[in-house]
Amino acid sequence: MEKAFEQIRREAAAAEAEKRTVKKRGKVPGTALAAALVLLLSAVTAAGAAVYSWSPKVAEEFQADQEQQDLLTKEHLTWPLDIAVTDGGVTVSLEQALTVPDYLYLCFKITGPEDMDLTGDISFNFMDFQLVGQKERVNFSWSGHCMEPEEGQSNIRYYEVWGFLRGISYEGMALDVRLKDLGRSLEKGGDPCETLARGSWNMSWHMGEGYEGETFRVETVLPDSDFTVHTVTMTPISFYMDCDWSRDRTGEELEWNPIGYCMEDGTTEPFRWELPPEKGYKNPVPESSEDTAYEIRQGFKKIYEIDEIRGILFCRVNGEEKEYFELELR
Fold this sequence. Notes:
The chain is globular and about 60 Å long. Mean pLDDT is 83; it is low at 1-49. The longest helix is centred in the first third of the chain and has 20 residues, at 2-21. β10 (214-221) and β11 (227-235) form a beta hairpin. Helix content is 16%, strand content 43%. The chain has two domains: 52-206, bacillus anthracis domain (Immunoglobulin-like, Sandwich), CATH 2.60.40.1630; 214-328, Immunoglobulin-like (Sandwich), CATH 2.60.40. By secondary structure, it is an alpha+beta fold.
């Protein structure tokens, strides 16, 4: 154990020394940090004394109590990552990553000099996220935004990113993140138009052991429709539905939409999300009209305990009235 930690200290010191020699760009070499991190995780896990604290900011955003934090850590939905890159006087660090099949959540902390004003709609001029394997690089859809600034900390901001992995198996893969030029836009959600810091903040890390989730076979046709739900795969922060929907309905909106969970105690929990659900045919250009495979993905900004969920609540708007249907899981 002592040898492992001593090697960690040596590699971290080497990484810090190399960082100090790169004055112009200020990039922190990721390989040394990654190697040290892997060694640290192996040593601590082997000793049976793994201690990992969530980012207080992420815990607050997900409304996660200590028991929920411990559960997601134990199930490898999140794991320790100590990654920070400094360039142009600005440090971007990875606060936390939550990863499950089909869904990814990242939180970055942006720290500028004390006299830098990072208020307003902050973003990067260029952002790229790719899963990287031994022989392939995979892009995926994502969205992100800057959280509201903390009171009295105008030089610090947190940036969230959500992504749908679309059934990509990330086991053995790394996530490459490339961020370039920090700026502020005049309109919320617009492209940065005022450059605050020029630089590149690139980082990479392995995606962990993965989490398969729990799959329920429901084989249910939604009322007065030709939409069939075959299976639902659930994690504490997402679900994936494997469905069928007649091609004759292409071009129309899906009438029934999932809006919340029906809990075992009889209450209803509305979904809390930032990224709208991703839904569509598995094969957008089918060879025949009989290819009706359809899928729905949804990721949340809240932790739901699967054992406490009885079903999924669907809603259909019919004129001025709303109809509801519970898709029972068990």
